[in-house]
Design goal:
There is one protein chain. 48% of the residues lie in helices and 16% in strands. With 816 residues, the chain is α+β, with helices and mostly antiparallel strands. It has four domains: 21-58 and 298-440, no CATH class; 67-286, no CATH class; 454-471 and 683-816, no CATH class; 493-668, no CATH class. The strands form three sheets. Strands 1, 2, 3, 4, 5, 6, 7, 8, 9, 10, 11, 12 and 13 form a 13-stranded mixed sheet that branches. Strands 16, 17, 18, 19, 20, 21, 22 and 23 form an eight-stranded mixed sheet that branches. The protein has a four-stranded antiparallel sheet with strand order 15-24-14-25. Strand 9 (185-188) and strand 10 form a beta hairpin. The longest helix is centred in the middle third of the chain and has 35 residues, at 442-476. The radius of gyration is 34 Å and the shape is globular. The chain starts with a helix and ends with a helix.
């Protein structure tokens, strides 16, 4: 009896699968729409999952990650707070003495754009490399805090001066085979010879510590002046120098934060300064997401961005499921006889529900397979819209588990309501074909679901329009200086290079295509920020804010087209003698007339420096930030860049001539130029990626919505074939029949817009808050969104409606 029951159950299961497959084949159009929508939705979700998982995994591979903290700083002034990730150089040893509860204290000093030369057997330069990520000066205690794997050597080698450790990839890059690297010599920045004393296994790409080149920290202490490291200066802070703590298990970080209050009072001399300094612990797990602070990696990702991506993925999947529910409940009338016969023959509601879920499961299974294939094809292009490593794998244990969970969730979301509707038919009405579309209880739900779909679509459309408009505003914004056709070349500031600097400038100015040349620390708008406290007009009163400093020669203003509103530039000088200030500084000093500032003095360090001119405000950093109060001074020893304004005529020849002249002057250095407009574009890499993401997901949302709308209109046209024929016989026009189809969907889209408008306004306004200079969320943006939604919906509905309206009524009535 038991075997008979098992055989019967097996046959019933096979029968359900067979019937499910036949229903899928019979309704090819609707099956295609469902599979296409689910495929796109699941593929998008899978790719978003890969990105989110990658971002959330940053530095989780360290064994002691949950106990590692970075000490960061908040400086509070009268006009707001400034955050710093760096600490002053002498703070490290003081922390080791004062924080006895802390297990380990380690410091890291990073360089940017360092040059490393390999040497031949005679000690001459063999190959030259510029390392954009720079190098790390690290003490041996670093390896007691962070997890690394040594292939050769150990942490103790970094206790010795002039030692360098490479990771495996870097060793291969320099020496061809990593095992050949041991004992070799590298020259750093054409200044110091370093012996390769160890090799590390490459770390995962998802880290904010790109440990490619590690130099012993004691080497930095011997040559600190060359990198701005001041071991005894409590007032000099740089983001290059960061300090990390390893706390013992059970120690509350708040206890350390409390001790750091006393640490500031003990060691920092803040008397007379109108500011409050606070040191506090930042967990390692937050370092990648806290946009107040920088890190050593290539980018930061806010938690808001992570949540936004996750929600978009969820919404795309919900929209695809909505299509399935709408089409399945709409098709219910065509399956009423099948359901009635099954019920008469003894099928229970449970069995009917199982059958519907079986059909849904088959469609979802096909969609999962297609989605995995689609995601695999799209993966190589994912790096264009997200900062993930090229080596990222799609099919991992976690992503497969995600697909399984997504498949189960989608099967339930898509199959539950249709199963309830179909299994709830009364057999008598079903067999008499008295179940119409209007009698299916799902009609109100379908309206709600269509509204939901278009609400999501319109939020994404509005988001896309705002993102595109903001990025266009950024690209076309008046920065207050000339960024076009300006070549910026990293320069060298060692003693030998400084000797050739003036001669190089003269030779560059002689080139026919060169319009102007300036020697400078950095360009008008950069990610760098050199700040200092100051006093104005021989006053001992602290103004309550810091001033930013740029160092450049007198041709800086001409090269970048900076405009003077009062006075003029300073005289050429190698040292700090005169300065030019910007309008923002005067406004914050309550100086109303720029001319009144000419001849006044500002104290930097121990020197009072006269003001010779006031320049019109220009953007000192990205448009996310307000223009900083600024002074521009001469200081030749810090001129680490050359700015060259080039004529448009014979542009390529001029650029080539510049390279030839530079390499002739500095044969031992690598030539790494960059155009000013390209470097500014890098400020907004993540915003540009977000703009592209909005475009992609808005397109996907529109595609899924239109697929579902097309399916519903197709079904309505099929259901209303006889009605349309009768209307045409009675004189109805094509436009009136099209109106019959579109009026309800138009109303639903308007309702969706009314819901989407406040949601989109809130979300995009929150995004725009990240920019000090931004567009206004005007009415036009929202009008474009609703018109775009209407147009797309009418195009989708119109095609099928016009086709139905143009059909021969004789054939329509005869077929009925």
């Amino acid at each position: 009896m038991l075997n008979y029951t098992k055989k019967l159950s097996s046959k019933m299961f096979q029968n359900y699968i067979k019937i499910a497959w036949k229903n899928i084949i019979r309704h090819k159009v609707y099956s295609f729409i469902n599979i296409a929508g689910l495929t796109v939705g699941i593929a998008a979700c899978l790719l978003i999952f890969v990105v989110v998982e990658y971002e959330l995994s940053y530095d989780n591979f360290h064994d002691k990650a949950s106990h590692i903290y970075r000490i960061v700083t908040q400086n509070t002034y009268s006009d707001g707070a400034v955050y710093e990730e760096g600490l002053t150089a002498p703070a490290t040893e003081a922390l080791r003495v004062d924080l006895l509860q802390v297990e380990k204290v380690t410091e890291v000093f990073s360089t940017i754009g360092s040059q490393f030369n390999t040497l031949d057997r005679n000690g001459n330069t063999d190959k030259k490399f510029i390392e954009e990520k720079g190098a790390f000066f690290i003490d041996p205690q670093f390896f007691s805090v962070f997890s690394t794997k040594w292939l050769v050597g150990n942490a103790s080698v970094l206790a010795e001066p002039n030692m360098v450790v490479l990771n495996k990839s870097q060793a291969i890059k320099y020496f061809g085979e990593w095992k050949n690297a041991m004992g070799q010599t590298l020259k750093m920045d054409n200044l110091y010879s370093l012996k390769v004393a160890g090799i590390l296994e490459d770390q995962p790409a998802n880290t904010d510590f790109p440990l490619n080149i590690l130099v012993s920290f004691i080497s930095l202490k011997a040559h600190g002046n060359d990198y701005g490291y001041q071991p005894n200066e409590w007032g000099a802070n740089t983001s290059s120098h960061q300090v990390f703590l390893l706390l013992p298990a059970g120690l509350n970080p708040n206890n350390i934060n409390t001790q750091l209050i006393g640490f500031v009072k003990k060691h920092y001399h803040l008397d007379g300064l109108n500011m409050k300094k606070t040191l506090f612990l930042q967990p390692l797990k937050d370092m990648h997401f806290d946009t107040r602070f920088g890190n050593f990696g290539e980018h930061l990702t806010s938690k808001t961005t992570i949540w936004t991506l996750s929600l978009i993925g969820l919404f795309i999947l919900i929209m695809a499921s909505i299509n399935f529910v709408n089409l399945s409940t709409a098709q219910a009338t065509q399956r009423s006889k099948e359901v009635g016969i099954r019920k008469v023959l003894g099928s229970s509601r449970k069995q009917l529900i199982f059958q519907v879920f079986g059909e849904t499961g088959i469609i979802v299974f096909f969609s999962l397979m297609m989605a995995a294939l689609l995601a695999k094809l799209a993966l190589p292009y994912l790096n264009n819209v997200a900062n993930i490593a090229e080596s990222t794998h799609l099919m991992t244990t976690s992503s497969i588990l995600f697909l399984l969970i997504a498949g189960i969730a989608v099967t339930f979301l898509s199959g539950f309501y249709p199963a309830m509707v179909l299994s709830g038919f009364r057999p008598a009405l079903a067999l008499k074909s008295r179940i119409s579309l209007e009698k299916v209880k799902g009609i109100s739900l379908r309206r709600i679901l269509v509204v939901t779909q278009f609400t999501i679509s319109q939020v994404l459309i509005i988001g896309t329009i705002v993102a595109v408009s903001q990025m266009n505003f950024i690209r076309n914004a008046d920065l207050g200086f000339n960024k076009e056709s300006i070549l910026v070349i990293p320069n060298n500031t060692d003693s030998i290079s400084l000797q050739h600097m003036d001669a190089l400038k003269l030779e560059l100015q002689k080139l026919p295509g060169v319009q102007s040349v300036t020697m400078m620390f950095d360009a008008p708008s950069t990610g760098n920020n050199w700040e200092s406290n100051f006093n104005y007009d021989h006053s001992d009163k602290d103004p309550g804010f810091n001033v930013s400093i740029k160092q450049a020669d007198a041709d800086y203003f001409k090269t970048f087209g900076l405009q003077f509103v009062a006075g003029n530039t300073y005289q050429q000088s190698d040292t700090l003698k005169e300065m030019v200030v910007n309008e923002t500084l005067l406004r914050k000093l309550l100086v109303k007339n720029p001319q009144d500032a000419i001849g006044k003095t500002i104290k930097l360090g121990n020197r009072w420096i006269p003001i010779t001119g006031v320049v019109k405000d220009f953007k000192t950093s990205s448009l996310r930030e307000q223009t900083r109060p600024l002074v521009i001074v001469t200081r030749k020893k810090y001129y680490s860049r050359i700015g060259i304004k080039i004529h448009s005529a014979n542009f390529s020849q001029t650029v080539a001539a510049i390279q030839t002249l530079w390499e002739k002057t500095y044969p031992d250095y690598v030539y790494t130029p960059e155009f000013m407009d390209e470097s500014i574009a890098k400020f907004y890499k993540q915003e540009s990626q977000m703009e592209l993401l909005y475009k992609i997901f808005a397109a996907l949302a529109i595609l899924i919505s239109c697929l579902g709308l097309y399916g519903l209109v197709s079904f309505m046209a099929q259901q209303k074939t006889k009605e349309i024929g009768v209307r045409k016989v009675l004189g109805a026009t094509v436009s009136s029949i099209v109106y019959l189809f579109s009026k309800e969907f138009t109303l639903l889209i308007l309702i969706a817009f009314a819901i989407a408008l406040p949601v989109a306004y809130f979300l995009m306004n929150a995004w725009l808050v990240n920019f000090a200079y931004r567009i206004d969320l005007g009415v036009g943006i929202f009008l474009i969104a609703i018109l775009a939604s209407m147009l797309l919906a009418w195009m989708t509905v119109g095609y099928k409606a016009i086709k139905a309206a143009l059909a021969n009524p004789v054939k329509s009535l005869r077929s009925e």
